[in-house]
Amino acid sequence: xxxxxxxxxxxxxxxxxxxxxxxxxxxxxxxxxxxxxxxxxxxxxxxxxxxxxxxxxxxxxxxxxxxxxxxxxxxxxxxxxxxxxxxxxxxxxxxxxxxxxxxxxxxxxxxxxxxxxxxxxxxxxxxxxxxxxxxxxxxxxxxxxxxxxxxxxxxxxxxxxxxxxxxxxxxxxxxxxxxxxxxxxxxxxxxxxxxxxxxxxxxxxxxxxxxxxxxxxxxxxxxxxxxxxxxxxxxxxxxxxxxxxxxxxxxxxxxxxxxxxxxxxxxxxxxxxxxxxxxxxxx
Length: 283
Ligand SMILES: NC(=O)c1ccc[n+]([C@@H]2O[C@H](COP(=O)([O-])OP(=O)(O)OC[C@H]3O[C@@H](n4cnc5c(N)ncnc54)[C@H](OP(=O)(O)O)[C@@H]3O)[C@@H](O)[C@H]2O)c1
Prior knowledge:
Elements: E1 3-5, E2 11-13, E3 17-18, H1 25-37, E4 42-44, H2 52-62, E5 70-75, H3 82-95, E6 101-106, H4 113-125, E7 129-135, H5 139-147, E8 155-159, H6 167-175, E9 179-183, H7 197-206, H8 210-220, E10 224-225, H9 232-239, H10 248-255, H11 270-278
Parallel strand pairs: 3-4, 4-5, 5-6, 6-7, 7-8, 8-9, 9-10
Antiparallel strand pairs: 1-2
This protein binds NADP nicotinamide-adenine-dinucleotide phosphate.
């Protein structure tokens, strides 16, 4: 496993396990157990994934020491204000059965993100969250947000994969010491990524799958990746990406796959924002 060092000096594994869309509590717990058994030490959940309790139960049952795990969760839009965020942080801690989180993110750039950030800053200073960050912030928003807060975000988790490469956004984050983290590193399986001819052909040279090449490409761009799978064999495959290196020609060829936009979300579409605002994580 490789690690990155965040702007506050904390080390974060460069690859972890995402558990979005795993709402069945038993499957979520088993996925965490399988991940930890197979070497994963970063787990990425969120209040809005409705599985924090199962993730916490999986961690407990695994026997892996809490301090050996890098645990991320996220504050949902419903709690995006100073007072609500204080409660939201505590709810995540309670659900995950832990005294501290390694990373806590503002899940979406929606609502009173400045107020919520004050609560995250306080929790960070109180030792309840080791690093604080944001998610789905585009470069211009990130520039504004990083400037007008006491603590700069340590991480920005955004959609990044071979079909939506966002080179300028990644550059901006690296230049400003904000760690890019890729959600949807497989484009959630869209565009036939797992049988893509370019990724497959490159993979054959190294005895790796298209999925492994897709992850390796992100890792070599200095991005943290959190692929999701509920299948143990795929979990094993997805973490087995630290024993080969793509060369410049491979990297260049993969850059031709970029379509330059997301086919999953559209943060410029008011209807999309209105829809995500409707999701409630508690009463
Ligand atoms: N911050 C945000 O707004 C945001 C948004 C989305 C996601 N995320 C985070 O990012 C994580 C990853 O993104 P994601 O879950 O949306 O999508 P993803 O990781 O890009 O893709 C997951 C899909 O790929 C399949 N898969 C995984 N490994 C495979 C392999 N080796 N071969 C073939 N198929 C494979 C999975 O199927 P099976 O599970 O059936 O194996 C699942 O259908 C999430 O779990 C979550 O933690 C964050």
